[in-house]
Structures are given as structure tokens and as C-alpha cells.
Amino acid sequence: MRAFVLDRDGWGLREVPDPRPAAGQVVVRTTAAGLCHSDLTLAARPPDAHPFALPLVLGHELAGTVVERGPGVTGDLALGTPVVGYGPRGCGHCAACATGAENYCRTPGPRFPPGLGTPGALAELVAVDARHLLPAPDLAPAQGAALSDAGLTALHALDRALAAVGLPPEELTVVVLGVGGLGHVAVQLARLAGAAVIAVDRVAAKLDLARRLGADHVLPAGPELPDAVRELTGGRGADVVIDLVGSSVSLAQAGAMVAVNGVVSVVGVGSGRLAVGMHALPLGVRTDLPFWGTRPELARLLGLAAAGQVRVEVEEIALDDVPAGYDRLAAGEVLGRAVAALHP
């Protein structure tokens, strides 16, 4: 089969053996696989700097159809079932994993998600543990693939932040710093929850997208941003700041605009650091470092999308065009998410 592979010589389309399902696994024929900035990070590392062996099939955002079942697979994953992959990998047995929160597995040890250490979705076929698949019969594959990472990460971060504040969402203001692949979904979810939304970005087209998706206010990134947020909130500041950048500038601004008893949720993987301590932040402020999301959250998100309440801005490309897609992603030219469409 064909797959997009990272090896010691770089990356590109390669011929690799078809996977066979082990016990508890199914083989999925990929219909859509998302491209992510995490893949660019992997490709930029020296070959010996990875904590896993190369070559590696990339892609951790999967939608497809079940075409083969391994021994011991039961339940609702019949042949022909459309599915979406759940990315985090845990032990499957601890208290967190038992609730579907494999993103916070309590058992020590490295466990690599697909495309981030184990064979990924940018291939014609992929073998997946059955517990890491959710049926998605009413959803376009490109939407399902993008929601499995960009959508789930946004939902999880927002859910945790709103729960931490503990007030009715209708009383709250959420600032989304960075209206990219995750941020434009966060805008929709915050509005759906009932909060007022302020979307921030440097790119005019992304601010236009946020406005179309229901943001109450859009603001260009810049040094005056914290003052502008406080002006829009009557001096109170933002109850929730979701920082999808993670730079030193964005984190400093998040700390300067967050309200008393608010939450700064750091989702972006930039190299910035947020100063925390008495008088460094308003009283009662919590910081959060959410990671990906839970399996029940993904099921809820797929339901919202199937009902038309959430939609990812998707740019579909062919598998042959994945290298050019990554170039455009690295250049910041993708509005929303880039998704490789494979089998119809």
C-alpha cells in the first residue's frame, strides 16, 4: 500500500506492507487523514532525536471504514462501519483510562499515538485497537478526521476552563488567542456554550472567519490587546483565555487580560512561559495545561458535528499532494485544517 512516511532520509510517499490486525484490532481503510503542525515538528528533528524508531507512517487524525476484524473484536465495529480514530494512548486499565481519559493515563511509561510514534493514518490502510475507534456514520470523513484532534483539543480545553470558573457560561467572556485550526473550532464551541467570545489573530482572513463563526468581537494581535479586552469587558477582563499560540508574548498578554478567578488555558506548544505567583496574576486565577481530550468528549463532539452545530474549515487534498500541503501549513497559508482525502 501507499503511505506518507518519515524516515532517516526525510519524508515522502512510500510503498509499505499492508497491515494485519492483531487480537483486539481492526484494519481501517483510510478515507481522510489530517495534517498537523505536530508532524512538522517531528520532521524538523534529527533522525536520532526521536524517542521511537524510524521509519514512521505519519498522521494522527483518522477517519475511515472497517475492512477487517482481528480476533476478539466484538461490538458495533462491523465490516463497512465508518469510524473516527481516538488518538491518545494509555494503558487501558487505570482509573483514568477506564473513564475514557487515556490522555491522562496514570500508568507511567511512554505510549505513542498513531503517527507520533506508531503507524499513522496517512496510509491507505491502518491497523487500530478497536477501543480507539468511534462509529461515525453521519459525518463527512474530512470533518471526522479534523475533529479527532483539532476539535477534540478545543472542546477539552474549553470544558475544563468553564468548569474551573464554575459560573454560568452566559456570564462569561472567552478570549481565543489564535484563530487557526483549533481556534476557529474553539470560537464555535464557546458560542455554543453561551459565552461571549473575543477572537484574536494577526491574519485578517482568520479574523473574518471568526466573525462568520459567531465571535462577538475580533481583535488584531498587538501590544494594545490586553487593554482592548478589558475595555470590551467593562474593565473586568476575560474569564477564560485559551492561548493556542504559547509564545512569551501571548502568555504575557493572557496574564494581563485574565479576570479575577479566571483561567488561562495554555494549549499552544510555543516556548513561552507564564509567570505565576502572588501579584503576578489576578487573585484566584488558575492555569491549565490541557492535553487532547477524552473518548466521551470525542463522542459528544462527533454528535454536535453530525447535528450541524460545529464544523471544521477544511481544505481537502490528495495523498499525492501531502508534501505541498505541509509546505502550505508551515507557511501559515491553510485556513482551518488540511486533510488528505484518500478512498471515496
From TrEMBL:
Domain Enoyl reductase (ER): 12-340
Entry superkingdom: Bacteria
Keywords in alphabetical order: Metal-binding, Oxidoreductase, Zinc
InterPro entries in the cross-refs: ADH-like_C, ADH-like_N, ADH_Zn_CS, ER, GroES-like_sf, NAD(P)-bd_dom_sf
Cofactor: Zn(2+)
Gene Ontology molecular function, alphabetical: oxidoreductase activity; zinc ion binding
Family, per entry: Belongs to the zinc-containing alcohol dehydrogenase family.
Protein name: Alcohol dehydrogenase catalytic domain-containing protein
Origin species: Nocardioides simplex (Arthrobacter simplex)
Lineage: Bacteria, Bacillati, Actinomycetota, Actinomycetes, Propionibacteriales
